[in-house]
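Quick bug: Lysosomal Pro-X carboxypeptidase output formatted oddly.
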Amino acid sequence: MASSSSPSVLLFLLLFTIAATAKTSESLSTVFPRAIPGSALKQVPNAKKPEPKFPFKTQYFPQLLDHFTFTPKSSTIFYQKYLINAQYWSHGAPIFVYTGNEGDINWFASNTGFLLDIAPSFRAMLVFIEHRFYGESMPFGKESYKSPETLGFLNSQQALADFAVLIRSLKQNLSSEGSPVVVFGGSYGGMLAAWFRLKYPHVAIGALASSAPILQFDDITPWSSFYDAVSQDFKDASLNCYEVIKGSWAELEAMSAKEGGLAEVSRTFRTCKDIKSVYSAQDWLWSAFVYTAMVNYPTKANFMMPLPAYPVEEMCKIIDRFPHGATNVSRAFAAASLYYNYSGTEKCFDLENATDAHGLHGWDWQACTEMVMPLTCSNESMFPPSPFEYKEFSDQCMRKYGVMPRPHWITTEFGGSRIEQVLKRSASNIIFSNGMQDPWSRGSVLKNISASIVALVTKKGAHHVDFRFATKEDPDWLIEQRRQEVEIIQKWIQDYNADLKQ
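Here's what came back:
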């Protein structure tokens, strides 16, 4: 079976491509590399959608198309998918809600074992709500992505309102309106969880926002921080590894520029078909290194791809084992192959013909409207230096959708600047959990803001690793992080129940 990658899609929790290619590609991601966790599966069109490992009942909720206007069209109903597990729940017990990301909700449920692990001790009901315009929750069916007129109803504010309406209706139908609700989310879902607590404190008593880069907007976080962090992960594993990858880009460019160069690149990368652009090979390498840094988990995992424990270190071992005189490109290719072919079953790689198997391309619209998170590559990065050009980015959005981005809307709607002073006085009961090996951690909250707005930061943690199923191989620091999360949530619920009795 061939392994595919997608050199031109925007993503992630998402996809990352080469900003320097902006003048040669119409991909929006060339000027706005993005990421939102689940979206990396966009790279794996032949992958089977994993089913949840615990029993969920699938439900569909009649949801309003538009929560914020009173025009005739706003009352249109679409059916929003959600998953529910009431195995441990009893009347009045907590309801734990996962605020869905940009993709099929089954996939997120399958990779959020933490909630199943803790549900018995809390006697909690688990609810995973699918984000509008993703998975099966399509307001206009197959026409949902047809035009800006339909996509205009895809934004974070509508999604948060969806969650609030569904949760309130669920509690009413259960005759359990006193049940405390805690929301959980990772990456973009973590951003939504934190924002939900800010916008709907009467619906949720607290939020656990894992790997949530709510400060990756405007100029709050340095634009180069993401790729600097990816580079630091590899440099920490091996300085030679970092230098080989850093030197591979120019070497690859020079190889392709020779007569018959693309054919040589195709042979080097074991492509199923000759590639048409060197950028396909660059993007293939780029994505492998970025995603591997994101999911540098301490145990074997199959989140984005099947990978060993600490895959960054394993990639660098591959590079460091090469004999003196080997090319940087051959070493980089061998390392990236760990990401795409850890099983060793791929005979060739398809670099230019990926499909959107998980229905994630709605993020392209979100990136072109409200989710403007500029990313650049500094001279310290192992990637080629590249700027963020807003005009070029906005021009591409205009050509693709006929809309202009609103780069400051998220911070206007949810805040971000001076977040310590603002949230200290206006919010409570939010956990921001991060691992410093996750490049998105730089855009999250890394220090305690108050006694109830807490940052749990681990040195070796990767992208929402705390949400994964517990295993016997989990290191002590991860066990402790989860223990603290459970302890804090228990206190929220105890305080809530005490207030009810007054």
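Actually, after a second look the formatting is fine. Residues 476-501 form the longest helix (26 residues). Closing.
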